[in-house]
Amino acid sequence: MPNQNKPKPYEPAEPSLLAAEAPSALFPIASEATPASTLSEVRDEIGDCRRCKLCSTRKNIVFGTGNPHAALMFVGEAPGADEDAQGQPFVGRAGQLLTKMIEAMGLSRETVYIANIIKCRPPENRNPQPDEIAACSPFLLKQIEAIRPKVICALGTFSAQTLLETQQKISALRGKFHDYHGVKLLPTFHPAYLLRNPNEKKTVWEDLKKIMEELKKG
């Protein structure tokens, strides 16, 4: 457990609720019965995907990373340039902030699972288009079914609107649990938004605390 006298890099609004308890006790694995190979099977099914036009401009398919039995899953929008180059989600500046957010919760990237709505970078980081989402979303659902998380955190407007099939703004969706195929889903602001609006870190920390409390219920 890290030294509680040292300020957390994320600088949440107040000390972590996990200060006195081990994360392993508060965040049990969601499903010991689901074999880790299930995600490998989903990745094998995707293959060298040519199901949409993004295949012609991508460098790497960005499948997802983390614990295949994670109780908490983060879902972003789409890979950016750094993610496309490395083949891993959330590795740029926004990804570094997401790592700090996860650590402020008393967790690590290795104990959660991180993925995106689509697996290939849209040119110039534009929003994913409907045909691209239609081609890719079945694989995200299969990832969720394989992992069987207790909670999904949707990062940003596009992720929340896509998963919940709504046009409501993130300001209206965030901070509340919604149902997604039987899994509790809580939207919050994207880390990239926090880089531009650091004053909203307190708002996101309140959202993350709700997720922490939900995971503590076991």
From TrEMBL:
Catalytic activity field: Hydrolyzes single-stranded DNA or mismatched double-stranded DNA and polynucleotides, releasing free uracil
Major enzyme class: hydrolase
A Pfam family of this chain: UDG
Protein keywords: 4Fe-4S, DNA damage, DNA repair, Hydrolase, Iron, Iron-sulfur, Metal-binding
SUPFAM superfamilies, A to Z: Uracil-DNA glycosylase-like
Entry EC number(s): 3.2.2.27
Domain of life: Bacteria
Gene Ontology molecular function terms on file: 4 iron, 4 sulfur cluster binding; metal ion binding; uracil DNA N-glycosylase activity
GO BP term, example: DNA repair
Uracil-DNA glycosylase-like domain boundaries: 63-209
Protein family membership: Belongs to the uracil-DNA glycosylase (UDG) superfamily. Type 4 (UDGa) family.
Name of the protein this chain belongs to: Type-4 uracil-DNA glycosylase
Protein source organism: Candidatus Manganitrophus noduliformans
Phylogenetic lineage: Bacteria, Pseudomonadati, Nitrospirota, Nitrospiria, Candidatus Troglogloeales
